[in-house]
Design brief:
The protein is an alpha/beta fold and 311 residues long. Helix content is 42%, strand content 15%. The longest helix has 17 residues. The two termini are 38 Å apart.
Length: 311
């Protein structure tokens, strides 16, 4: 570890703080974290600890989820400006209007939403359990699904549902293209293509493995060493390479031209706002702190609890 990383670890121990790092954060952030994972898994794992402080190195809605599941703990973020294009695409006012236009509909929201949006939701889902949760709803249920259109479209296709879909998307996963994957397949004809469910339908159609970031990681860990073409945010490459050192992972770039490889990175600008310097400062100063108003928290935790009971 670097001197700065050692300082962060020492401070975390002194303050009884747990450091959480999403798979999409910088390599050096993941190296210093207590837990690495997807957003909900991190919040649930941290809730099981005796830590007094949680530091969520991810984006803002993830810190809110930590607070919802651990209301008595202090939740910090290295950079309060680390937002999420997907969560921002459907705020509470947007969802409230959508619900008013569709009375009698069950509201299912992806976990990548603000606490205020969750408070207006019947049940939340992750990319890993969305199908399982939707399958448990009545077949004749009228459903509003948001905010990720690509995930909702995929779930419609595999469940036979006809959910109404919000037109939101992740700025990272929207940038993957069929042409990029086709070009890489020419270079690596034996490679297995893995794609996140936030990708567009034509990209998913080219994938051998479709699922959440955790699903991709689990698949690689459970199969013989091979080559993988990976269509999700490039931060996952660190954990893939760390846990599967005998495999080769080829990241899909945002765009690719015929005959060129292009920049091998498709990164979330918000995740990369988390830096070691900001992590040190937020631990030292115990801010920025993320809170959720009590009236919102009371309703926002309910759809999470319902999801957990269904999955």
């Amino acid at each position: 570890m670097t001197q700065l990383q050692e300082e962060i670890r020492r401070m975390a121990e002194e303050k009884n703080a747990v450091i959480l790092a999403h798979y999409y954060t910088r390599k050096e952030i993941q190296e210093v974290a207590d837990f690495i994972g997807d957003s909900l898994a991190l919040a649930r794992k941290a809730a099981e600890t005796e830590a007094d402080i949680m530091v969520m190195c991810g984006v803002h809605f993830m810190a809110e989820t930590c607070k919802l599941l651990s209301p008595g703990k202090k939740v910090l973020v290295p950079d309060v400006e680390a937002g999420c294009s997907l969560a921002d695409s459907c705020d509470a006012d947007d969802l409230r209007r959508w619900k008013e236009e569709h009375p009698g509909y069950t509201v299912v929201q992806y976990v990548n939403t603000t606490a205020a949006t969750k408070a207006l939701t019947d049940v939340v889902v992750t990319s890993g359990n969305a199908k399982k949760v939707i399958d448990q709803l009545p077949q004749d249920a009228k459903i509003l699904f948001g905010p990720d259109y690509n995930l909702g479209s995929y779930i419609n296709s595999v469940t036979g549902r006809n959910m109404e879909l919000w037109q939101g998307g992740c700025h990272v996963h929207e940038r993957f293209s069929v042409d990029a994957i086709a070009q890489l397949k020419k270079q690596y004809p034996e490679a297995t293509v893995m794609a996140h469910l936030e990708c567009k339908a034509p990209v998913l159609a080219m994938a051998d493995v479709k699922g959440s970031t955790a699903d991709m990681l689990k698949y690689a860990q459970q199969h013989e060493p091979q080559q993988y073409i990976v269509a999700t945010e490039a931060g996952i490459m660190h954990e893939l390479e760390r846990t599967c050192p005998d495999c080769e992972f080829i990241p899909v770039p945002p765009e690719i031209s015929e005959g060129t490889v292009g920049c091998q990175c498709n990164e979330c600008q918000y995740m990369k706002l988390n830096t070691l310097e900001k992590l040190r400062d937020c631990l030292r100063d115990e801010k920025p702190e993320v809170t959720v108003p009590a009236d919102i928290a009371k309703d926002a935790v309910k759809p999470i609890e319902r999801m957990l009971s269904m999955s």
